[in-house]
Each structure stands twice: as C-alpha cells, then as structure tokens.
Amino acid sequence: SMLRRGGAMSGEQRLSGIHDMLRKLRQQRREQLERYNLDSLFDGLKEQLEQILDKEKQTVQDWIKDAGQQQGD
C-alpha cells in the first residue's frame, strides 16, 4: 500500500516528493491565473466606461451650448 511505501521512504525522499508536489501546484496555479486573467477584462471595462464618460461630457457641452444660444435669441 501507499502507506507502507511512504513509511519505507527516507525523510529525504519524502521531502523531495513534497517539493515536487509544491512545484506542480504552483505550475497549476500559474496556468489558472493566466487562463482567468482578469486584467484584460478590467481593461475592456475601463475602455467602455471612458467612452461612456466621453459621450456624457459631449452631451453636457451640447446642452450648455444650446442653452447659451437660446438665451441669445
């Protein structure tokens, strides 16, 4: 059984196995972070928000311009 084999392993062999497991876990974590990279998502959202704000600013400027022209009439 695995328990018997683990018991027969030297401390150095067990430590090596733990290091291998940690290395594999780190690699898996790195792969998942790359796969689910949120930076690109946030960049896209930021760009969309900036476009919305630009449109709103332009609309407000148009209102101010129109209001100034109406007062002049």
Protein model, in words:
This protein has 73 residues and is mainly alpha-helical. The chain has helices spanning 2-8, 11-35, 38-72. The chain folds into two domains: 1-36; 38-73. It is built from three helices and no strands. The longest helix has 35 residues, at 38-72. It is rod-shaped. The model has no long low-confidence stretch (mean pLDDT 86).
Amount of beta strand: under 5%
Number of helices, counting only DSSP H or I runs of 4 residues or more: 3
- What gyration radius follows from the Cα positions, in whole Å? 31 Å
Helix-strand category: mainly alpha
Unreliably modeled segments: none
The best one-word shape is rod-shaped
What is the residue-averaged pLDDT? 86
The end-to-end span amounts to 95 Å
Q: Level of helix content?
A: over 70%
Number of discrete domains: 2
